[in-house]
Design goal:
single chain, Rossmann fold, 5-stranded parallel β-sheet, 8 helices, globular, SGNH hydrolase-type esterase domain-containing protein, RhgT-like, SGNH_hydro_sf, hydrolase activity
Length: 240
C-alpha cells in the first residue's frame, strides 16, 4: 500500500456518537475503527501507521450531552496535546442520530458552532461530518431518511463557519441504495440494527470517510490507498 506523505505530521481526533465510536467487541462500532484501524475488532486502518487517531466519540451522545458528560473535555485535552506536539490536528465532528430525538436541528447547529470555534481556538482544524445514514429502506428500495434536516444543519454550519465538510450522509445513502437492502443489511451489527456496524460495515464506512477526507484535502493527508474497496464504494458495488 502507498500513501501521499503529509506536508506536516498529522493527527486525527474523532468526535461524535456511536456511529463514529470505536467498537470494543467483535462486530461492533461506528466508522472510527475503519479509519483508525483496530486490533480489537480486526479492522484494517485507512490511515498510515504511526498516525495518531484518537477516537473520543461516545455511544448515545448528543452535541449537548457530549459536553455535559465530560466527553468534550476529553476531546479538547487530546486536541491540545496533539497541537502542542506541533502536529497538524484534524478534528472530525459528527452528530445527529441522537440530537434528532430531543431537539430541532437549530439546537444542534448552535452546539456545533461552539465546538468549531473551540477547536479553532486551540489551533486545530474542525471538519464537520454529516450523519451516517441508517440502513432502513422503503418498499421502493430507497432509504427512509429521517436524518436529512440534521445533515442539512451540519452543512449550514460548515458554510457559516467556513470549515471543511464531509457529506457522509449523502455518500452513504447513495452507496447503500446502489448495493440494495440485502447487501446493506450485511453491514449491520445485528440483523435488525440498521444504525450500528459490524466489522465489515466499519471497514466500508471508515474507508468512505477516508476517501472523503482525501477529496477534501487533496494530497495533504496520510491516507493509505485501498483501491479495490474505494473503487467498489465509488461504483456502488458491495464488497461484503
Amino acid at each position: 500500500m502507498s500513501f501521499v506523505a503529509a506536508q506536516r505530521p498529522t493527527s486525527f481526533v474523532l468526535v461524535g456518537d456511536s456511529t463514529t465510536a470505536n467498537g470494543t467487541t467483535e462486530n461492533s462500532g461506528g466508522w472510527g475503527n475503519g479509519l483508525c484501524g483496530s486490533t480489537i475488532t480486526g479492522n484494517i486502518a485507512s490511515i498510515a501507521a504511526g498516525t495518531p487517531c484518537i477516537n473520543t466519540a461516545h455511544n448515545g451522545a448528543t452535541t449537548g450531552t457530549f459536553v455535559s458528560n465530560g466527553f468534550w473535555a476529553t476531546s479538547l485535552a487530546a486536541i491540545k496535546s496533539e497541537v502542542g506536539k506541533g502536529r497538524r490536528t484534524l478534528v472530525t465532528i459528527q452528530f445527529g442520530h441522537n440530537d434528532m430525538k430531543i431537539a430541532p436541528p437549530e439546537s444542534m447547529g448552535q452546539n456545533l458552532t461552539s465546538m468549531v470555534q473551540q477547536v479553532r481556538a486551540l489551533g486545530a482544524e474542525p471538519v464537520l461530518v454529516t450523519s451516517l445514514t441508517r440502513r432502513s429502506f422503503n418498499s421502493a428500495g430507497k432509504v427512509s431518511d429521517t436524518l436529512g434536516p440534521w445533515a442539512d444543519e451540519t452543512k449550514l454550519i460548515a458554510q457559516q463557519q467556513g470549515t471543511h465538510l464531509l457529506d457522509l450522509h449523502a455518500a452513504s445513502i447513495k452507496y447503500v441504495e446502489a448495493i440494495g437492502p440485502d447487501a446493506a443489511h450485511r453491514l449491520n451489527r445485528t440483523p435488525d440494527d440498521n444504525t450500528h456496524l459490524n466489522v465489515n460495515g466499519t471497514t466500508v464506512f471508515g474507508r468512505m470517510v477516508a476517501d472523503l477526507l482525501k477529496m477534501s484535502f487533496p494530497g495533504e493527508l496520510p491516507i493509505i490507498a485501498n483501491d479495490p474497496l474505494s473503487n467498489n464504494i465509488a461504483r456502488g458495488i458491495a464488497s461484503f
